[in-house]
Amino acid sequence: MADPQGGMSTIVQVVTRWVLLLTLVFGLGVAFFGHLTPGGGFAGGVVLACGAVMATLAFGARTGPVAKVRKAASSLDAVGALAFLAIGLLGYTAAHFLQRWLELGEAFTLGSTRFVVLLNLAVMLKVGAGLFAGFAAIVAFARATSDADEKSDGKEQA
Amino acid sequence: MDPVLFVLTVFLILGSLVALEMKDLLSAVIAIGVVGLGLSIVFLLLGAPDIAITQVVVEVIVVTVLILATKGSRVEESGGRRNFLVLGVGAIALILATALTIHAFSELPAFGSDRTVASAFYLRYGPDLTGAANVVTAILLDFRAYDTLGEATVILAAIVGVLAVLRRPARRETPARPTVGGDPDAPTPTEPTGVPAPEAEERAEVLHG
After folding, report:
1. Could you tell me which residues are beta bridge partners of residue A104?
2. For A18-22, A94-98, B5-9, B42-46, which range has the lowest pLDDT when averaged over its residues?
3. CB A76 within 8 Å of CB A82
4. Interface of A with B in 114-153 (CB under 8 A)
């Protein structure tokens, strides 16, 4: 296991570039079509977070895109939660909180229920960004404490 | 009971025992991962692909985090000789709990039966009323969107809690190099200021770029 800050070897990085694309597309697909096929916002968000974790491990946490995503993750988490709430509040325009306020479409298509799709996307944003933010924080903390442990050990032996 | 399911369940129990008894932390984490993946196959066999997808991916992330967290940490030998009184009480409690669980499960409705009015209603009218062909999503995000709102709130609170506990320590007037020696276990997650200043700054950089 390579250091999460430094990234891994070129072979891993090249393979990750390909797999990452597929992972992100799969995650988006699972979230977008959650109302037709198994999956949904939660599963799609977790898949996206998994892709971000993979990119972090392969490329290291300091490289451009990964660092940007990591910085934005905690904001995106809040954005997803607020979007869910906003969709719920818009339900008052129809009848009451979380009431479906968008018309149904043709059955078995992406637009068959745009209300559920929107909610799925909000949940996807929330779960994906939240999981990744938690992952980044835990990894950074574990690394800092293990470094501190190693240093204090060295002092005792000296 | 489906024989494949039975074999898988026994496999899961064995994996959990291995994870408990392993002296090496990394091996224990791998055993936990095996249990999680087996559990996702169980979900798939029980006809819950939604849960199976989530279970697989969450397990991957959890195992990654656990490996990163346990990497380089020492294993403390615990226990040693076992007290026979504790073992006896534990065995009796285990037998009692098993008997009660079997009794409780025998009272449940049969697997897959739609005995409640609500579930029959969802299955019958779900796709027509919500437009979602996947009944699971129809229930989660339309019939019972309040539940999902609560779930989202719980996750948000958990993530905010994690970020708050592991946050960058507040900038305050501290000596350049606090004491490092003494207790080697001083930097604990509940005590962010226990980490020496250079590491704390590095951590802040890691967290906030």
Report:
1. A113
2. A94-98
3. no
4. 115-116, 119-120, 123, 126-127, 130-131, 133-153
